[in-house]
Amino acid sequence: MFFRGRFLNTFSLFIIPLLCSMSGCSTLKGSKPILPIKKYEKMIVGRFDADYVGTTNCLAACHAHDRLRKYFDASTMGAQLKKESGLPLVDCESCHGPGSLAIKGLTRKLVEENAKKGIKTTCDYKTLIDLKALPAPAQSLICLKCHTANATFNLHNWNASIHAVNGVSCFDCHTVHKSPDLKVRPIDTGRLCFRCHQTTQVEFSLPSHHPLNEGRVFCTDCHDPHGGSSAMLLRKKSIKATCVQCHPEKRGPFVFEHADVAADCMNCHTPHGSVNNNLLVARQPFLCLQCHVGHRINSPAGGGKASAAIGSAFYSKCTDCHSGIHGTDTPSYSGQGRFTQ
Fold first, then answer.
1. Exposure string (b/e) for 239-265, b if CB count within 10 Å is 16 or more?
2. Contact residues for 148 (Cβ-Cβ < 8 A; gap 6+)
3. 37-80 pLDDT, tens per residue?
4. How confident is the prediction for the chain on average, in pLDDT?
5. Residue (of 255, 257, 268, 221) closest to 241 by Cα position
6. Which of 14, 91, 292, 328 could be bridged to 55 by S-S, CB 3.0 to 4.6 A?
7. Domain ranges within the chain, ordered by starting residue
């Protein structure tokens, strides 16, 4: 009883806090209950006692947002403010809600008087929609009001995507006021994705890895962050179809194919990084021995009784002999298609 009591005390003092700290990491991004869509729509309507006044009136007297306005005017969304563009109207109030209460009492005269006193005049932004305080689905809904009705067809999959389900919003990746180009540059996707996918970041630092850190491939080459019908947010319908975009020589079909592994490259390779050469999930020959029976290299045919010259020789790397491991159209010298060409 004494030892059991000491064990329980030790468990409660050390093990339980450790488990709690570990579980805390897994809840950085976690699934949360999804409310009915009408609940989110009410969050982004804005104040019912406010009226729409237009961007020109919003920014006529206040100069606090001049820099943001320049960025917005130069952006693709800012271009839609021009009537001749023929595009749906997008302005400040499309996202921030009606602004009559925010600029109530603001005049050019007041702004000039405050400027002489060294006072910076700003609008009453508390009457606008508090975008940062909105739950992720409501934040995304602000963008989806327009972006599901235009040519960005892939955003139709957003609400069912793994990112949306785990509380990621458009705001986590896109900053509307940051610069004229609202899209994330491919070279910046790694840094952006690694904020959540830290395990993947470590994999790209292993000795054998796809050259993402070197700027030669990008996350979006393989994955569609907005969702889709394929597993793991892949842009193509299968893993092999994704891989052969860059490795077309592995596409096939071949006369002699590597049977069950031909359809799934991840049976042998890990996609991001590995301690083994060629992104292998295990070193040779141990990778091959998971499916194939080992043999001695005692004879020209690779088997049989030991000869005097190489009586007990074993191979250490299967691909030294079986070089056409993904498939080949040329039979081996034995005529049995052993991928030796």
1. bbebbbeeeeebeeebebbbeebbeeb
2. 155, 156, 158
3. 899 999 999 999 999 988 778 877 776 677 777 777 777 777 76
4. 79
5. 221
6. 91
7. 37-131, 185-281, 284-341
